[in-house]
Amino acid sequence: MIRVEHLSKKFGEHVVLKDVNAEIKKGEVIVIIGPSGTGKSVFMRCLNLLETPTTGKIYIDDVDILDKNTDVSKLRQKMGMVFQSFNLFAHLTVLENLTIGPVKLLGKSKADAEKKAIELLKMVGLAEKSRNFPDELSGGQKQRVAIARCLSMESDIILFDEPTSALDPTMVSEVLAVIRRLAKEGMTMAIVTHEMEIARNIASRVFYMDEGLIYEEGPPEQIFENPQKEKTKAFINRVRSFRYHIATPDYDLYAMNAEIEAFCEKHVLPKKVRHNVLLLLEELLAMINPANNWSEIDICLAYSEKYDSLMLTIESGGEEFNPLQESDLADDIGSIIVNSLGEKLEYERVDGKNIVSLIVKR
Amino acid sequence: MNIKKVVLILLICLILLACLTGCSGPEKTITSVDDLKEAKIGVMTGTTGELLAYAKYPDAQIESFDDIMDGIAALKAGQIDGVITAYTTALNTVKHNADLHILGGVLEYDYNSIAVRKGDDELLAQLNEIITKLQNDGTLADIDKRWIKADLSPYEKVEIKLPTEGDVLKVGVTATREPFSFVDDNQQITGHDAELAQRIAVELDRPIEFVDMKFSALIPALQSGKIDLIISGVSVTDERRKSVNFTVSYYKNAEVAIVRNTENVAGISFFEDIKDSFYSNIILENRYLIILDGLKTTVIISILAVVFGTLLGGLICFMRMSKNKLLSGIARVYISILRGVPVLVLLMLTFYVAFASVDISPVLVAVIAFGLNFAAYVAEMYRSGIESVDKGQTEAGIAMGFTKAKTFFYIVLPQAVRHILPVYKGEFISLLKTTSVVGYIAVQDLTKASDIIRSRTFDAFFPLIMAAVLYFVVAWLLLLGLGYIERHFDPKVRKRQVKKAA
Q1: Of A86, A93, A101, the CB nearest to B498
Q2: Is residue A131 within 8 angstroms of chain B, CB to CB?
Q3: Is the pLDDT of residue A57 over 80?
Q4: What ipTM was predicted for this assembly?
């Protein structure tokens, strides 16, 4: 359906895409992942010529879209696009957002277009918002309307450009649910995303982009469980971490907790895990603080995409002290909590520092 | 805005004006020509009176006015102590103002002549011949008798059969110079000089057309070929000789001084005064027709200029935002020049330079000049309005399959209009008010109409208030119209409408 050959894109001297070759077949769900700044979005925007490629060829149903005689506007009608920032038409109601295309471009009657629009809005669960204006909707609702807008044009393929990046974590799932439903119904889609979960679950093929090209592609099982190439491995196994440095005994406990919560939210960790992390930290700090005579403390939270696990590490100075073994400590409840909420508890003494690490139970 | 507010604002305007005319500094009483030496003297710019005042009264404080009636108004308000002007004008002034009188004694004589363009020697020779002939057969003396009335009795107008075929003779006049040239109750330009001009036209066997413009604009108009000659009580000065050629004199005038009476005329009540003013300024000689005509012209110029400027502004904005460096460069230069030049200067340049040798209606010139100016301002308004629409909106439209043009008209423009309209409204009203300078190019608009009436009645108060009120009403009506459009594009109002429909 879409064939891309030797596509390259430069912005001035800066090379974003070097040599991209790809093919998307009808009914496929392609998920494009990769580190930031590797041209995922640019690649996507080249497909409907929102960006003009520097060199290379793009064929849609064997039509060369870079040919001067090709009616690009006509082709775009068959390719919907969902943007990171929604881009709903601000001066139109939700319903009008869905009818303007069919009426002005496909020549449908207003009544037909509205009937279809209401159906689509029902499908994304927003029929009751049809007379609202975009600025009255939440981010998740806006994105669902944007998806419905693409469907109203009866597109053959929908391009998703980071559809959940601008969303509050609590709203990601409602949008993902709609995308999942479309995948189930056999819609052809190309999705640029940082949501590994969606890549894992609905992709028929995953493109891993790096170094300005499609570095590795394959079914999700291969990319996630058994990546072949060096950089793919590094990306899939990468851990994302959060560090917090406690310099004085008068540190801002609430600020630290808020940052930890934000980190957990960002990685869509369940509420329970978030709660556990905070409780564990509170207990461990209560044990360590008196023992190390207020020397500085470093906290590290690390989340591994691959194993979907959260590791907590606390480094502290002072004398050798293993909080995990101090059973004679007055605060017995502390030990009980630590043992029940954490697993793989470990203690090490390195370079005059006490290092406690554990995996937060889910 | 409700009616109460409007009435309140009008009242405040009236009170302010009454205060301004009422308050004045210590007034000086002039009883003889010698008293002028250290007085405040009003004169009209570029006239013999001005030269005379500077030469004869070096110690006096001399105020130059663009039109003599402004000087008279200042004299009546007590801002100046005397006005030096031609005897004919003085006669007419005291006729209408019981509180003024002419000071005894002629200050100087001066000679009224017809001005023709330098180099137009053929016309000059013809005119000299005609004036000499009219003088010899007594026609000039007859004209003087009919129009210069020392006893203030009515003028005697005679009908002259005018040629209709041939090359039109364009005569520049300032129709606020009674008794030489002024507008009568049939809205016709008439008077001593008008009759002379008509007689000259008969002698030349050419149809005649009067072109009425501000006195200070007459000579530039003659030089640029907009008119063929000036007959409007112009007295010969050395200064003017440098710019134009003068014929032999057709009238010997005298310069005299007008001053306030020492004793006030028995006071009449404020309301009587208003009633009299209303009658003489509005009803008498159907003067409201002049006002209505002027109002029509003002509205026509404003609306046409706005339409023209809005369209041209769209084009300039398109060029300005174009990726083509040449186009955007041209637009940039256009915008900065047009915004940097005062609109009155632009108007005069358009009339006297750009269209100097083209026979074009001054109303059209005004529309073009104001439109050009308006376009420069709205082009930048459009640009900021369009740029304030998020780029994502355009991208979404394009990605959906709209062409660039359709995306602009269906998606960007409706959103930009909402940002543009509030500023656009202000610019529109500002344009309406600025059109009051069109009198400079011989267009009789609302301001000019009130000038004409003032020149007949020498009453500063009423015609000006009338003009102010009318400008305000027109602006208000136009704002109502634009407000209607604005509501159409306001999302909040649309929300209410959409919800109501649901």
Answers
A1: A93
A2: yes
A3: yes
A4: 0.73
